[in-house]
């Protein structure tokens, strides 16, 4: 145990800080004392402990304790003889491979006592402090002050008795005590504990006095004050006016005696534009000369933010650490010529919480006086305005004088002060539920003072005292004392003259109006029941009022109110019987009003009311009976007329009532009618009308507008022409009585004949007609026609279907027959059999329908069956069909491998479609066919209607970086919006090298549509031509001046190079020029690495973030001890 403790102290005193600390214990026996605590202490100081155990005399358990609980640090040697051949590397290998343990130390969270602030070496505030590190104790001012003659310095030591790291302080605590200037607010009074309470303090109070004017005559010279100027420097001030502002600040400072004594004043200053800026603290300049020199402030311009200027002053100027004194009044003088939307009211409340008074100066007509009122808490006496900056000279004395009037005085009771609450008799006695009425001022950690036993939010739950219930003021104030029209009102609402009025109760004398008004000064008289020396009396009864004449007089200019319509229900009619029909706010005495229901829609009772005076007030006689009796009801025997069709052209207009029942002659209130055009044949605007009662009459609201409805005929459709599917087309014929070209629809009046295909089929025939029925086109008679029945006539005719008898390409059959061709032809009909020209050529034949042996036969058919047709190979389908497609984005692709000439042969196909992916739409396939002896593109008519739309969902890809495998290359798109996956046609991009680090050629590529595809035009050239090389003449600047790191900083570079720039990877090391300068934060040096920032520029990595902690060094100057 002792050996390890000696080792610990030896290593602490003589060990090197830059070397590992190692202890090797060589032992063969069990020790007689414990060694685990000192070995753990060694580990706490970052010392590694190893046990070289010889023979088995030392157990593994003990050896482990020697190593601080680390069994892996045990090395065993079997015998003493074996020790001579033992390799030391067995231990040194463990030492080399094992990192030093984390050191332990004293807890920085240690509580040194109430009001004590600990400052640890190195500036850290949390965690463990290393062995031998120092701590300096101070008191949390201004509340706590040091106890004289105590030494408040200490250090972290290891206590071998308790095996702990502890703080050793030169003097024993407590170290701080409460300054007697601080204590509980001396604000407990009758207002808190209730009427009749008396508050007595056991001690006097500490008072922060108001500043006083020690000047003579019209001059002003202030006593001690802590003052902050908050000065507007926004652009509206203008540089030409700034010297006038500075002159005012210096002139006002001349009214003060500058210094730090209790009778002297201190000044701080804040400028503000869009943000507040601290110029100096209260204790920065403590002589008049240095202070006035610092008031030569610079002018920056900018915007106006009054709130931020006040915030900086309240929180940074009035800080006890920066000179704010607890026993001196705090004052802010705000100077501005503008206005803004900032929250001045919250700044006033914040200032009040720190006992700071605010005065405001407004210059010119640009200030907002209402905003300044919020800055000063609504007290206009604290606002000073001048027309221009020249007027500031006139304000120095008036503001100086105002400070002596407006600054608040604060009284406090020292800790230990007692207060006692009693009741003022004989009118008051202690409340049964009240506590003992004794409280003591106590300090509540960390910075609050409270009266023990009192809730600071609600000091008294109920009054401490109560009135003696058997006493009070006599209830002897009556209307007789004040004359006709006087009205007496007791605050407690009681009228029994034998009941006394409680303390604080009042009696109010008013006039019983509006017929009576006050006939003397003042609108009313109020007497209050008070207690004086335990006696109740009516305050004001004897000395304030003269009862020799009446208090009230009758006001003949008033009358009964005319606004009585709101007292009645809906649908009531009023007739005021007044001269000339002019209705005023008040109607004269004896005026009558006839009240009845709005007819004819409503019916009910009728009444007449009269204006009279009742008990000194103008009232409508019988108005209550009229309100209850008029009772207007809806007359349901009629309403809005339902027959309104004759007001419209009913052939084209539709009227639909939103009504589910049976429609009669009238509709009730609220029914809606929709007026529109009979669709789909007619179209136009639609209107809505509503049945309403207007001034006692039913009316269709909106009808006048609806009468102007205009309907137009829809000529885009009619009765459908495609009705064949409704019949068996093989046996039924449909003939439209229409000369023009038949489209999809027929107009009104067109007829169609439905019959059987004769002569093969026979049956009835019907006629249908296109008509408009309720706004729709319909075939009248179609349902009946659908039932047509046709029978087959199987007794005659040569068959017309003879094509299959000719197995020959190019052969045609033409019947010499003018009528409709059915299944059979009658006798005498001829047919020509030949070759379809011009594609085919050959012989031709004529066959005739004859009756042979009772049968119809084609005469000459057998010969004609041998017809031979040869192909004409000199023509085909034309290849030049592009001009038939007037459409951007359309393409034509022929399925043909050979050279394309003027014509294609039968069977060749062509695909018509949209050039993708830029365009999309339907696609078509046309085929070269021979149709009736002619080459034709089959499907071409349908393909001509192709429509191609532009595909806006993609374009040229934005992700093209991987095409440039080149360090230093950049891509910049000439595009303002958000970049997605693709760019549209016309967008360009610049390809080049990131400068200044890289140099190389630049290219511009453009998004274009080429053969239906989006392509970057010029991309191949850019990919092949972009070669970026590092410019060896650029890098990070070596010209790092002292202005960045502060005085005393020494800058070195890891490459020891010269020149203006460094290469990438070079380190810049900053240290202090010792011993005169030392690091501010305890770190010996910091380094920054030259790095490229990804934009082609060189930066010192980490320098921008670290600038907030500069200056890096501080002077190691000190004053020798006196």
Automatic annotation (TrEMBL):
Protein name per Swiss-Prot or TrEMBL: VWFA domain-containing protein
Any Pfam family: VWA
Domain VWFA: residue ranges: 226-399
PANTHER family: COLLAGEN ALPHA (PTHR24020), VWFA DOMAIN-CONTAINING PROTEIN (PTHR24020:SF84)
Originating organism: Plectus sambesii
Lineage: Eukaryota, Metazoa, Ecdysozoa, Nematoda, Chromadorea
């Amino acid at each position: 145990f002792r050996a390890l403790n000696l080792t610990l102290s030896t290593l602490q005193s003589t060990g090197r800080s830059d070397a590992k600390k190692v202890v090797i214990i060589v032992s063969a026996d069990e020790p007689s004392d414990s060694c685990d605590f000192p070995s753990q202490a060694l580990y706490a100081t970052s010392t590694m402990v190893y046990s070289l155990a010889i023979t088995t005399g030392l157990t593994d358990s003990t050896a482990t304790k020697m190593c601080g609980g680390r069994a892996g640090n045990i090395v065993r040697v079997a015998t003493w003889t074996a020790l001579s051949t033992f390799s030391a590397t067995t231990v040194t290998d463990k030492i080399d491979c094992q990192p030093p343990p984390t050191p332990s130390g004293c807890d920085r969270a240690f509580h040194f006592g109430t009001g004590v602030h600990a400052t640890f070496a190195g500036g850290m505030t949390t965690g463990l402090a290393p062995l031998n590190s120092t701590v300096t104790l101070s008191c949390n001012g201004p509340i706590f002050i040091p106890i004289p003659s105590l030494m408040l310095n200490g250090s972290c030591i290891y206590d071998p008795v308790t095996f702990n790291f502890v703080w050793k302080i030169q003097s024993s605590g407590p170290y701080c005590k409460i300054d007697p200037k601080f204590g509980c607010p001396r604000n407990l009074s009758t207002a808190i504990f209730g009427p009749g309470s008396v508050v007595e303090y056991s001690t006097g109070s500490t008072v922060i006095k108001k500043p006083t004017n020690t000047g003579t005559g019209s001059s002003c010279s202030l006593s001690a004050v802590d003052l902050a100027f908050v000065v507007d420097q926004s652009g509206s001030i203008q540089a030409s006016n700034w010297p006038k502002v500075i002159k005012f600040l210096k002139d006002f400072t001349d009214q003060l005696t500058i210094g730090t004594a209790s009778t002297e004043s201190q000044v701080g200053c804040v400028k503000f534009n869009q943000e507040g800026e601290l110029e100096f603290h209260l204790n920065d300049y403590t002589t008049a000369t240095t202070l006035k020199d610092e008031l030569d402030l610079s002018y920056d311009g900018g915007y106006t933010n009054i709130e931020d200027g006040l915030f900086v002053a309240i929180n940074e100027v009035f800080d006890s650490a920066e000179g704010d004194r607890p026993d001196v009044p705090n004052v802010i003088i705000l100077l501005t010529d503008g206005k803004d939307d900032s929250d001045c009211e919250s700044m006033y409340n914040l200032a009040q919480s720190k006992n700071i008074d605010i005065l405001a100066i407004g210059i010119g007509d640009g200030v907002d006086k209402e905003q300044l009122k919020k800055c000063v808490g609504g007290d206009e006496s604290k606002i000073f305005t001048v027309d221009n900056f020249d007027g500031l000279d006139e304000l120095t004395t008036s503001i100086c004088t105002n400070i002596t009037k407006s600054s608040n005085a604060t009284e406090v009771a020292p800790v230990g002060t007692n207060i006692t609450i009693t009741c003022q008799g004989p009118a008051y006695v202690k409340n049964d539920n009240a506590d003992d009425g004794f409280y003591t001022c106590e300090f509540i950690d960390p910075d609050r003072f409270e009266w023990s036993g009192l809730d600071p939010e609600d000091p008294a739950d109920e009054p401490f005292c109560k009135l003696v219930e058997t006493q009070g003021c006599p209830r002897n104030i009556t209307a007789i004392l004040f004359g006709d029209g006087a009205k007496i009102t007791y605050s407690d609402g009681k009228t029994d003259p034998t009941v006394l009025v409680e303390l604080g109760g009042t009696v109010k004398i008013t006039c019983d109006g509006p017929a009576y008004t006050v006939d003397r000064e003042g609108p009313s008289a109020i007497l209050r029941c008070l207690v004086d020396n335990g006696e109740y009396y009516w305050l004001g009864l004897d000395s304030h009022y003269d009862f020799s004449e009446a208090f009230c007089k009758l006001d003949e200019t008033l009358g009964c109110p005319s606004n009585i319509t709101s007292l009645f229900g809906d649908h009531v009619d009023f007739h005021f019987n007044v001269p000339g029909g002019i209705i005023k706010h008040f109607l004269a005495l004896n005026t009558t009003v006839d009240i009845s229901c709005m007819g004819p829609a409503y019916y009910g009772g009728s009444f007449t009311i009269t204006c009279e005076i009742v008990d000194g007030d103008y009232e409508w006689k019988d108005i209550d009976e009229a309100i209850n009796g008029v009772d207007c009801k809806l007359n349901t025997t009629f309403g809005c007329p339902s027959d309104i069709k004759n007001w419209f052209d009913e052939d084209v207009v539709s009227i639909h009532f939103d009504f589910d029942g049976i429609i009669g002659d009238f509709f009730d209130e609220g029914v809606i009618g929709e007026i529109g055009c009979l669709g789909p044949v007619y179209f136009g605007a639609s209107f809505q009308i509503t049945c309403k009662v207007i001034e006692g009459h039913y009316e269709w609201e909106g009808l006048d507008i609806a009468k102007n409805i205009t309907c137009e005929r829809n000529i885009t459709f009619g009765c459908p022409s495609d009705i064949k599917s409704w019949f068996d087309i093989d046996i039924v014929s449909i003939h439209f009585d229409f000369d023009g070209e038949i489209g999809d629809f027929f107009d009104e009046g067109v007829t169609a004949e439905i019959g059987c295909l004769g002569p093969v089929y026979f049956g009835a025939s019907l006629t249908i007609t296109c008509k408009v029925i309720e706004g729709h086109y319909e075939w009248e008679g179609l349902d009946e026609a659908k039932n047509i029945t046709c029978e087959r006539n199987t007794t005659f005719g040569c068959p017309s279907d003879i094509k299959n008898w000719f197995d020959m390409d190019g052969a045609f059959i033409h019947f010499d027959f003018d009528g409709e061709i059915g299944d059979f032809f009658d006798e005498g009909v001829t047919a020509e059999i030949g070759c379809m020209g011009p594609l085919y050529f050959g012989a031709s034949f004529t066959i005739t329908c004859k009756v042979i042996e009772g049968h119809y036969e084609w005469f000459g058919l057998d010969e004609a069956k041998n017809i031979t047709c040869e192909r004409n190979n000199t023509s085909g389908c034309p290849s030049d069909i592009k001009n038939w497609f007037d459409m951007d984005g359309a393409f034509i692709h022929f399925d043909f491998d050979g050279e394309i000439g003027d014509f294609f042969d039968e069977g060749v196909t062509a695909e018509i479609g949209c050039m993708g992916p830029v365009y999309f739409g339907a696609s078509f396939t046309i085929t070269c066919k021979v149709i009736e002896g002619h080459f034709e593109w089959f499907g071409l008519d349908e393909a001509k209607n192709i429509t191609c739309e532009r595909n806006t969902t993609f374009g040229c890809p934005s992700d093209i970086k991987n095409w440039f495998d080149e360090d230093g290359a950049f891509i910049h798109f000439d595009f303002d919006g958000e970049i997605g996956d693709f760019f549209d046609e016309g967008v360009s991009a610049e390809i080049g090298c990131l400068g200044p680090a890289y140099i190389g050629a630049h290219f511009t590529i453009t998004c274009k549509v080429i053969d239906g595809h989006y392509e970057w035009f010029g991309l191949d050239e850019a990919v092949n031509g972009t070669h970026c090389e590092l410019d060896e003449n650029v890098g990070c600047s070596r010209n790092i001046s002292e202005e960045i790191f502060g005085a005393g900083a020494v800058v070195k570079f890891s490459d020891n190079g010269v020149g203006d720039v460094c290469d990438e990877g070079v380190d810049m090391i900053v240290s202090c020029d010792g011993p005169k300068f030392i690091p501010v934060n305890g770190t010996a040096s910091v380094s920054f690495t030259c790095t490229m920032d990804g934009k082609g520029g060189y930066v010192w990595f980490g320098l921008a973030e670290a600038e907030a902690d500069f200056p890096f060094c501080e002077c190691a100057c000190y004053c020798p001890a006196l």
